[in-house]
Amino acid sequence: MAASAVGGLATFYALRQGRPADVAVLTGVLVTIAGLGLLTWRARRRWTRDRYRLQAAIDCLGDGLDIPFEVVRGSGLQPLENALAQAAARIRAREGGLRDEVLEQEALVDSMVQGLITVDRRERVMRINRAAVRMFNLREETLVGRPIQEVLRDPDLHNLVAESLAREGRIRKEMELAGPVEQVVAAHASALCDHRNRRIGSILVFQDITRLRQLERMRSEFVANVSHELKTPITSIKGFIETLSEGAAEDPEARARFLGIIAKHSARLESIIEDLLSLSKIEQTGVLPEATLDRVPVRKILEAAVESVEGQARATGVPLTLDVNPPDLPVKVREDLLVQGVANLAENAIKYGGTGNRVEITARSVNGHVVISVTDHGPGIPADHLPRLFERFYRIDRARSREVGGTGLGLSIVKHIAQAHRGEVEVESQLGHGSTFRIRLPAG
To answer: Going from the N-terminus, what domains does the chain have, and what CATH number goes with each?
Structure first.
Protein backbone atom coordinates (compact mmCIF):
# COMPACT_ATOMS: atom_id res chain seq x y z
CA MET A 1 0.00 0.00 0.00
CA ALA A 2 2.87 2.35 0.74
CA ALA A 3 4.27 1.69 -2.77
CA SER A 4 0.84 2.41 -4.37
CA ALA A 5 0.55 5.67 -2.45
CA VAL A 6 4.01 6.76 -3.59
CA GLY A 7 3.09 5.85 -7.21
CA GLY A 8 -0.11 7.94 -7.01
CA LEU A 9 1.80 10.92 -5.69
CA ALA A 10 4.32 10.55 -8.48
CA THR A 11 1.51 10.56 -11.10
CA PHE A 12 -0.14 13.63 -9.53
CA TYR A 13 3.18 15.48 -9.45
CA ALA A 14 3.83 14.64 -13.11
CA LEU A 15 0.42 15.98 -14.16
CA ARG A 16 1.01 19.22 -12.23
CA GLN A 17 4.23 19.67 -14.15
CA GLY A 18 2.30 19.63 -17.40
CA ARG A 19 3.45 16.21 -18.45
CA PRO A 20 1.22 14.18 -20.73
CA ALA A 21 -1.20 11.89 -18.92
CA ASP A 22 0.32 8.70 -20.27
CA VAL A 23 3.78 9.75 -19.18
CA ALA A 24 2.48 10.67 -15.75
CA VAL A 25 0.77 7.29 -15.39
CA LEU A 26 3.88 5.46 -16.56
CA THR A 27 5.99 7.39 -14.09
CA GLY A 28 3.59 6.44 -11.30
CA VAL A 29 3.64 2.77 -12.31
CA LEU A 30 7.42 2.69 -12.45
CA VAL A 31 7.70 4.34 -9.05
CA THR A 32 5.18 1.86 -7.67
CA ILE A 33 7.11 -1.10 -9.10
CA ALA A 34 10.38 0.28 -7.73
CA GLY A 35 8.81 0.72 -4.27
CA LEU A 36 7.39 -2.79 -4.33
CA GLY A 37 10.80 -4.18 -5.34
CA LEU A 38 12.55 -2.35 -2.54
CA LEU A 39 10.03 -3.54 0.04
CA THR A 40 10.28 -7.10 -1.27
CA TRP A 41 14.07 -7.00 -1.12
CA ARG A 42 14.04 -5.70 2.46
CA ALA A 43 11.48 -8.31 3.55
CA ARG A 44 13.43 -11.11 1.89
CA ARG A 45 16.66 -9.90 3.43
CA ARG A 46 15.08 -9.81 6.88
CA TRP A 47 13.48 -13.23 6.40
CA THR A 48 16.79 -14.71 5.21
CA ARG A 49 18.59 -13.21 8.20
CA ASP A 50 15.99 -14.56 10.63
CA ARG A 51 16.10 -17.95 8.92
CA TYR A 52 19.87 -18.17 9.29
CA ARG A 53 19.64 -17.05 12.92
CA LEU A 54 17.02 -19.71 13.54
CA GLN A 55 19.07 -22.37 11.74
CA ALA A 56 22.16 -21.44 13.76
CA ALA A 57 20.12 -21.65 16.97
CA ILE A 58 18.77 -25.11 16.03
CA ASP A 59 22.29 -26.33 15.19
CA CYS A 60 23.62 -25.06 18.54
CA LEU A 61 20.71 -26.65 20.34
CA GLY A 62 21.43 -29.96 18.63
CA ASP A 63 25.09 -29.74 19.71
CA GLY A 64 24.12 -29.02 23.30
CA LEU A 65 25.33 -25.37 23.13
CA ASP A 66 23.61 -22.21 24.26
CA ILE A 67 21.37 -20.56 21.61
CA PRO A 68 23.33 -17.55 20.19
CA PHE A 69 20.41 -15.11 19.82
CA GLU A 70 17.71 -13.32 21.68
CA VAL A 71 14.12 -13.16 20.46
CA VAL A 72 13.61 -10.01 18.33
CA ARG A 73 10.22 -8.36 18.56
CA GLY A 74 8.47 -7.81 15.26
CA SER A 75 10.25 -10.71 13.61
CA GLY A 76 8.11 -12.83 11.35
CA LEU A 77 9.51 -15.88 13.06
CA GLN A 78 8.94 -14.58 16.58
CA PRO A 79 6.46 -17.32 17.61
CA LEU A 80 8.87 -20.00 16.47
CA GLU A 81 11.80 -18.20 18.15
CA ASN A 82 9.82 -17.96 21.39
CA ALA A 83 9.06 -21.70 21.29
CA LEU A 84 12.68 -22.51 20.51
CA ALA A 85 13.98 -20.32 23.35
CA GLN A 86 11.61 -22.00 25.82
CA ALA A 87 12.65 -25.45 24.59
CA ALA A 88 16.31 -24.47 24.99
CA ALA A 89 15.70 -23.32 28.56
CA ARG A 90 14.00 -26.63 29.41
CA ILE A 91 16.79 -28.62 27.78
CA ARG A 92 19.45 -26.65 29.68
CA ALA A 93 17.65 -27.26 32.96
CA ARG A 94 17.31 -30.98 32.20
CA GLU A 95 20.91 -31.18 31.02
CA GLY A 96 22.10 -29.53 34.25
CA GLY A 97 20.12 -32.05 36.29
CA LEU A 98 21.52 -34.95 34.26
CA ARG A 99 25.06 -33.60 34.63
CA ASP A 100 24.65 -33.37 38.39
CA GLU A 101 23.25 -36.89 38.48
CA VAL A 102 26.16 -38.24 36.43
CA LEU A 103 28.69 -36.49 38.67
CA GLU A 104 26.96 -37.90 41.74
CA GLN A 105 27.02 -41.41 40.29
CA GLU A 106 30.69 -41.08 39.35
CA ALA A 107 31.56 -39.89 42.86
CA LEU A 108 29.58 -42.78 44.33
CA VAL A 109 31.28 -45.37 42.11
CA ASP A 110 34.76 -43.96 42.77
CA SER A 111 34.17 -43.91 46.52
CA MET A 112 33.27 -47.61 46.60
CA VAL A 113 35.54 -49.91 48.57
CA GLN A 114 34.78 -52.71 46.10
CA GLY A 115 36.35 -52.72 42.67
CA LEU A 116 33.91 -52.19 39.77
CA ILE A 117 34.44 -52.88 36.06
CA THR A 118 31.84 -52.77 33.28
CA VAL A 119 32.43 -54.38 29.87
CA ASP A 120 30.44 -54.28 26.64
CA ARG A 121 29.35 -57.29 24.59
CA ARG A 122 32.72 -57.31 22.83
CA GLU A 123 34.47 -57.61 26.21
CA ARG A 124 35.86 -54.08 26.06
CA VAL A 125 36.16 -52.01 29.24
CA MET A 126 33.45 -49.35 29.50
CA ARG A 127 34.18 -48.16 33.01
CA ILE A 128 36.53 -48.93 35.89
CA ASN A 129 36.63 -47.30 39.33
CA ARG A 130 39.60 -46.33 41.47
CA ALA A 131 39.22 -49.28 43.82
CA ALA A 132 39.60 -51.71 40.90
CA VAL A 133 42.63 -49.78 39.62
CA ARG A 134 44.28 -50.11 43.03
CA MET A 135 43.19 -53.71 43.52
CA PHE A 136 44.67 -54.89 40.22
CA ASN A 137 47.65 -52.51 40.19
CA LEU A 138 46.63 -50.83 36.94
CA ARG A 139 47.27 -47.53 35.20
CA GLU A 140 43.91 -45.75 35.09
CA GLU A 141 44.41 -43.56 32.03
CA THR A 142 44.91 -46.43 29.54
CA LEU A 143 42.01 -48.73 30.37
CA VAL A 144 38.66 -47.62 28.91
CA GLY A 145 38.00 -49.05 25.44
CA ARG A 146 40.61 -51.79 25.71
CA PRO A 147 39.77 -55.53 25.72
CA ILE A 148 39.49 -56.94 29.23
CA GLN A 149 42.13 -59.52 28.28
CA GLU A 150 44.69 -56.73 27.93
CA VAL A 151 43.67 -54.99 31.14
CA LEU A 152 43.47 -58.02 33.44
CA ARG A 153 45.86 -60.80 32.55
CA ASP A 154 44.21 -63.54 34.56
CA PRO A 155 42.56 -66.58 32.88
CA ASP A 156 40.01 -67.03 35.69
CA LEU A 157 38.80 -63.44 35.28
CA HIS A 158 38.60 -63.84 31.50
CA ASN A 159 36.47 -66.96 31.96
CA LEU A 160 34.23 -65.09 34.40
CA VAL A 161 33.65 -62.27 31.89
CA ALA A 162 32.89 -64.70 29.06
CA GLU A 163 30.52 -66.70 31.25
CA SER A 164 28.68 -63.59 32.47
CA LEU A 165 28.12 -62.44 28.86
CA ALA A 166 26.93 -65.86 27.76
CA ARG A 167 24.29 -66.46 30.43
CA GLU A 168 21.68 -64.67 32.51
CA GLY A 169 21.64 -64.34 36.27
CA ARG A 170 24.36 -63.54 38.76
CA ILE A 171 27.65 -65.38 39.04
CA ARG A 172 29.87 -65.47 42.12
CA LYS A 173 33.38 -66.87 42.16
CA GLU A 174 36.28 -66.72 44.58
CA MET A 175 39.73 -66.58 43.03
CA GLU A 176 43.35 -65.96 43.90
CA LEU A 177 45.11 -63.27 41.89
CA ALA A 178 48.61 -63.87 40.65
CA GLY A 179 51.21 -61.45 41.99
CA PRO A 180 54.05 -60.96 44.44
CA VAL A 181 51.57 -60.69 47.35
CA GLU A 182 48.80 -63.19 48.06
CA GLN A 183 45.42 -61.70 47.15
CA VAL A 184 42.01 -63.38 47.26
CA VAL A 185 38.94 -61.68 45.76
CA ALA A 186 35.25 -62.54 45.65
CA ALA A 187 34.00 -61.65 42.16
CA HIS A 188 30.33 -60.97 41.37
CA ALA A 189 29.17 -60.70 37.75
CA SER A 190 25.72 -59.78 36.41
CA ALA A 191 24.06 -58.39 33.27
CA LEU A 192 24.36 -54.71 32.36
CA CYS A 193 21.24 -53.39 30.58
CA ASP A 194 20.25 -50.08 28.98
CA HIS A 195 17.08 -48.04 29.66
CA ARG A 196 15.10 -50.38 27.38
CA ASN A 197 16.29 -53.40 29.37
CA ARG A 198 18.46 -54.60 26.48
CA ARG A 199 21.69 -56.45 27.36
CA ILE A 200 24.67 -54.22 26.55
CA GLY A 201 27.38 -55.94 28.58
CA SER A 202 28.28 -57.13 32.07
CA ILE A 203 29.11 -55.49 35.39
CA LEU A 204 31.81 -57.03 37.58
CA VAL A 205 32.23 -56.23 41.28
CA PHE A 206 35.33 -57.38 43.17
CA GLN A 207 35.71 -57.55 46.94
CA ASP A 208 39.13 -58.10 48.49
CA ILE A 209 38.70 -60.91 51.05
CA THR A 210 42.41 -61.62 51.53
CA ARG A 211 42.37 -60.50 55.17
CA LEU A 212 39.22 -62.53 55.87
CA ARG A 213 40.78 -65.72 54.46
CA GLN A 214 43.98 -65.07 56.40
CA LEU A 215 41.99 -64.69 59.61
CA GLU A 216 40.08 -67.89 58.90
CA ARG A 217 43.34 -69.73 58.28
CA MET A 218 44.87 -68.26 61.43
CA ARG A 219 41.80 -69.30 63.43
CA SER A 220 41.99 -72.81 62.05
CA GLU A 221 45.72 -73.00 62.81
CA PHE A 222 45.12 -71.56 66.27
CA VAL A 223 42.50 -74.19 67.12
CA ALA A 224 44.81 -76.93 65.84
CA ASN A 225 47.79 -75.53 67.78
CA VAL A 226 45.81 -75.12 70.99
CA SER A 227 44.51 -78.66 70.69
CA HIS A 228 48.02 -79.97 70.10
CA GLU A 229 49.62 -77.93 72.89
CA LEU A 230 46.98 -78.99 75.42
CA LYS A 231 46.90 -82.60 74.27
CA THR A 232 50.64 -83.16 74.82
CA PRO A 233 50.76 -82.45 78.59
CA ILE A 234 47.33 -84.00 79.16
CA THR A 235 48.40 -87.22 77.43
CA SER A 236 51.62 -87.31 79.45
CA ILE A 237 49.80 -86.70 82.74
CA LYS A 238 47.20 -89.34 81.91
CA GLY A 239 49.88 -91.89 80.92
CA PHE A 240 51.95 -91.46 84.08
CA ILE A 241 48.87 -91.59 86.31
CA GLU A 242 47.89 -94.89 84.68
CA THR A 243 51.44 -96.14 85.16
CA LEU A 244 51.34 -95.22 88.84
CA SER A 245 47.93 -96.82 89.32
CA GLU A 246 49.16 -100.05 87.78
CA GLY A 247 51.76 -100.55 90.51
CA ALA A 248 54.60 -98.10 89.86
CA ALA A 249 53.47 -96.17 92.94
CA GLU A 250 54.88 -98.96 95.08
CA ASP A 251 58.41 -98.07 93.91
CA PRO A 252 59.43 -94.92 95.82
CA GLU A 253 62.06 -93.92 93.25
CA ALA A 254 59.74 -94.40 90.25
CA ARG A 255 56.88 -92.71 92.09
CA ALA A 256 58.98 -89.63 92.83
CA ARG A 257 60.20 -89.42 89.21
CA PHE A 258 56.71 -89.88 87.74
CA LEU A 259 55.14 -87.37 90.10
CA GLY A 260 57.86 -84.88 89.17
CA ILE A 261 57.03 -85.37 85.47
CA ILE A 262 53.31 -84.99 86.21
CA ALA A 263 54.00 -81.79 88.16
CA LYS A 264 56.10 -80.44 85.27
CA HIS A 265 53.37 -81.11 82.68
CA SER A 266 50.72 -79.70 85.03
CA ALA A 267 52.73 -76.48 85.36
CA ARG A 268 53.10 -76.33 81.58
CA LEU A 269 49.35 -76.85 81.15
CA GLU A 270 48.70 -74.07 83.65
CA SER A 271 51.11 -71.73 81.83
CA ILE A 272 49.40 -72.34 78.49
CA ILE A 273 45.95 -71.63 79.93
CA GLU A 274 47.15 -68.50 81.73
CA ASP A 275 48.79 -67.18 78.56
CA LEU A 276 45.67 -67.94 76.52
CA LEU A 277 43.49 -66.08 79.00
CA SER A 278 45.93 -63.16 79.10
CA LEU A 279 46.07 -62.97 75.29
CA SER A 280 42.28 -63.14 75.01
CA LYS A 281 41.85 -60.38 77.58
CA ILE A 282 44.33 -58.07 75.82
CA GLU A 283 42.72 -58.70 72.40
CA GLN A 284 39.25 -57.92 73.74
CA THR A 285 40.52 -54.68 75.28
CA GLY A 286 41.77 -53.42 71.90
CA VAL A 287 43.38 -49.98 71.84
CA LEU A 288 43.40 -48.63 75.36
CA PRO A 289 41.47 -45.36 75.93
CA GLU A 290 43.65 -42.40 76.81
CA ALA A 291 41.86 -42.04 80.17
CA THR A 292 43.07 -45.50 81.32
CA LEU A 293 46.77 -44.67 80.80
CA ASP A 294 49.15 -43.28 83.40
CA ARG A 295 52.33 -41.26 82.92
CA VAL A 296 55.00 -43.49 84.43
CA PRO A 297 58.85 -43.36 84.48
CA VAL A 298 60.17 -46.01 82.10
CA ARG A 299 62.84 -47.01 84.61
CA LYS A 300 60.15 -48.02 87.11
CA ILE A 301 58.58 -50.37 84.53
CA LEU A 302 61.89 -51.93 83.50
CA GLU A 303 62.95 -52.46 87.12
CA ALA A 304 59.66 -54.25 87.84
CA ALA A 305 60.16 -56.47 84.78
CA VAL A 306 63.76 -57.27 85.78
CA GLU A 307 62.62 -58.12 89.30
CA SER A 308 60.11 -60.66 87.95
CA VAL A 309 62.79 -62.58 85.99
CA GLU A 310 65.75 -62.04 88.30
CA GLY A 311 65.47 -65.48 89.93
CA GLN A 312 65.46 -67.22 86.54
CA ALA A 313 68.49 -65.16 85.44
CA ARG A 314 70.47 -66.10 88.55
CA ALA A 315 69.59 -69.78 88.13
CA THR A 316 71.01 -69.80 84.57
CA GLY A 317 73.95 -67.47 85.25
CA VAL A 318 72.67 -64.75 82.92
CA PRO A 319 73.75 -61.20 83.89
CA LEU A 320 71.04 -58.52 83.41
CA THR A 321 71.92 -54.89 82.66
CA LEU A 322 69.51 -51.97 82.70
CA ASP A 323 70.01 -48.57 81.05
CA VAL A 324 67.50 -45.71 80.57
CA ASN A 325 68.51 -42.52 78.75
CA PRO A 326 67.47 -39.93 79.75
CA PRO A 327 67.08 -41.36 83.28
CA ASP A 328 63.72 -39.61 83.87
CA LEU A 329 62.24 -40.73 80.51
CA PRO A 330 58.43 -41.02 80.93
CA VAL A 331 55.86 -43.05 79.00
CA LYS A 332 52.07 -43.02 79.09
CA VAL A 333 50.91 -46.62 79.50
CA ARG A 334 48.99 -49.09 81.59
CA GLU A 335 51.83 -50.08 83.88
CA ASP A 336 50.93 -53.72 84.59
CA LEU A 337 50.59 -54.57 80.88
CA LEU A 338 53.90 -53.02 79.83
CA VAL A 339 55.69 -54.71 82.73
CA GLN A 340 54.29 -58.03 81.48
CA GLY A 341 55.42 -57.30 77.91
CA VAL A 342 59.00 -56.38 78.88
CA ALA A 343 59.16 -59.34 81.29
CA ASN A 344 58.12 -61.71 78.48
CA LEU A 345 60.93 -60.41 76.27
CA ALA A 346 63.46 -60.65 79.09
CA GLU A 347 62.32 -64.18 79.94
CA ASN A 348 62.74 -65.28 76.32
CA ALA A 349 66.20 -63.68 76.16
CA ILE A 350 67.25 -65.59 79.29
CA LYS A 351 65.83 -68.89 78.00
CA TYR A 352 67.17 -68.77 74.45
CA GLY A 353 70.20 -66.48 74.77
CA GLY A 354 72.38 -69.18 76.23
CA THR A 355 73.75 -69.79 79.72
CA GLY A 356 76.04 -67.03 80.93
CA ASN A 357 75.32 -64.67 78.02
CA ARG A 358 74.45 -61.13 79.07
CA VAL A 359 70.94 -59.70 78.49
CA GLU A 360 70.70 -55.93 78.05
CA ILE A 361 67.47 -53.99 78.67
CA THR A 362 67.49 -50.38 77.49
CA ALA A 363 65.07 -47.49 76.87
CA ARG A 364 65.66 -44.50 74.61
CA SER A 365 63.72 -41.50 73.28
CA VAL A 366 63.78 -41.71 69.46
CA ASN A 367 61.87 -39.34 67.13
CA GLY A 368 58.91 -38.80 69.42
CA HIS A 369 58.77 -42.44 70.54
CA VAL A 370 59.95 -44.41 73.54
CA VAL A 371 61.89 -47.46 72.34
CA ILE A 372 62.42 -50.30 74.83
CA SER A 373 64.98 -52.87 73.66
CA VAL A 374 65.85 -56.31 75.03
CA THR A 375 69.08 -57.71 73.57
CA ASP A 376 70.61 -61.15 74.06
CA HIS A 377 73.96 -62.48 72.81
CA GLY A 378 72.81 -65.96 71.91
CA PRO A 379 72.80 -67.92 68.64
CA GLY A 380 70.41 -65.56 66.82
CA ILE A 381 67.35 -66.34 64.71
CA PRO A 382 67.35 -67.41 61.02
CA ALA A 383 65.99 -64.65 58.76
CA ASP A 384 63.17 -66.80 57.31
CA HIS A 385 61.61 -67.15 60.77
CA LEU A 386 61.52 -63.43 61.63
CA PRO A 387 58.27 -62.46 59.78
CA ARG A 388 56.22 -65.08 61.67
CA LEU A 389 57.89 -64.80 65.05
CA PHE A 390 54.98 -62.96 66.71
CA GLU A 391 52.30 -65.45 65.61
CA ARG A 392 50.61 -67.55 68.27
CA PHE A 393 52.34 -70.88 68.95
CA TYR A 394 54.99 -70.20 66.32
CA ARG A 395 58.28 -71.79 67.32
CA ILE A 396 61.66 -72.01 65.67
CA ASP A 397 62.59 -75.21 67.51
CA ARG A 398 59.51 -76.88 69.01
CA ALA A 399 61.47 -79.48 70.96
CA ARG A 400 63.76 -76.92 72.62
CA SER A 401 60.87 -74.56 73.29
CA ARG A 402 59.02 -77.25 75.23
CA GLU A 403 62.22 -78.24 76.98
CA VAL A 404 62.70 -74.73 78.40
CA GLY A 405 59.01 -74.41 79.21
CA GLY A 406 57.85 -72.00 76.49
CA THR A 407 54.17 -71.85 75.60
CA GLY A 408 54.61 -70.23 72.17
CA LEU A 409 52.36 -67.32 73.19
CA GLY A 410 54.79 -64.92 74.89
CA LEU A 411 55.76 -62.89 71.82
CA SER A 412 52.17 -62.74 70.60
CA ILE A 413 51.19 -61.27 73.97
CA VAL A 414 53.98 -58.68 73.64
CA LYS A 415 52.72 -57.69 70.17
CA HIS A 416 49.14 -57.17 71.39
CA ILE A 417 50.32 -55.19 74.44
CA ALA A 418 52.24 -52.85 72.13
CA GLN A 419 49.26 -52.49 69.78
CA ALA A 420 46.95 -51.75 72.73
CA HIS A 421 49.21 -48.74 73.43
CA ARG A 422 49.17 -47.64 69.74
CA GLY A 423 52.69 -48.97 69.38
CA GLU A 424 54.47 -51.80 67.59
CA VAL A 425 57.08 -54.50 68.09
CA GLU A 426 60.03 -55.38 65.90
CA VAL A 427 62.94 -57.80 65.94
CA GLU A 428 66.45 -57.66 64.58
CA SER A 429 68.67 -60.73 64.60
CA GLN A 430 71.79 -62.15 63.02
CA LEU A 431 72.94 -65.74 63.31
CA GLY A 432 75.78 -66.03 65.80
CA HIS A 433 75.35 -62.46 67.05
CA GLY A 434 72.18 -62.56 69.14
CA SER A 435 68.80 -60.86 68.81
CA THR A 436 67.21 -57.54 69.76
CA PHE A 437 63.47 -57.17 70.37
CA ARG A 438 62.00 -53.66 70.52
CA ILE A 439 58.74 -52.21 71.79
CA ARG A 440 58.12 -48.83 70.16
CA LEU A 441 55.51 -46.64 71.91
CA PRO A 442 54.31 -43.02 71.47
CA ALA A 443 56.11 -40.70 73.85
CA GLY A 444 54.19 -39.90 77.04
So the answer is: 2-102 (no CATH), 112-208 (3.30.450.20), 213-285 (1.10.287.130), 288-444 (3.30.565.10)
